[in-house]
Design goal:
Blueprint (H helix, E strand, L loop, with lengths): L4 H14 L2 H6 L1 E8 L5 E3 L1 H14 E12 L5 E12 L13 E13 L2 E9 L1 H8 L2
Parallel strand pairs: 1-6
Antiparallel strand pairs: 1-2, 3-4, 4-5, 5-6
Amino acid sequence: MHPSALETLQRYYAAFNAGDRESMLALLTEDVIHDINQGHSESGRDAFRTFMTRMDQCYSEHLHDLVLMTDTSGTRAAAEFTVHGTYLVADDGLPPARGQSYQLPAGAFFQLRDGLISRITMYYNLNVWLAQVAP
């Protein structure tokens, strides 16, 4: 029997906050689709691993106020949370990093298949983040 969507997301976000990227990756299908906030989509667990490696180099983040929602089929879910972070190293096309702290609301939408996450669509307001880290 597969874990419920709620259990899968609880494990995913616990692993995120613990910095346990391998446990996060183990909860994704091999062909996971990642819709990057205000950007493009990437496919595959390896692409997601590369994305997370870059994120961990540029940002230190912890999620608070996590609320998880699932549909009755267990194939769709959503999460709402507040990101508490520090901008460590300048990310491509973004302002210089000087250790700026930020807090912003964010959300994610998920599709699940066979107890694993098969699609992640992220959203946060980039302009709100930029206002907090801009010089």
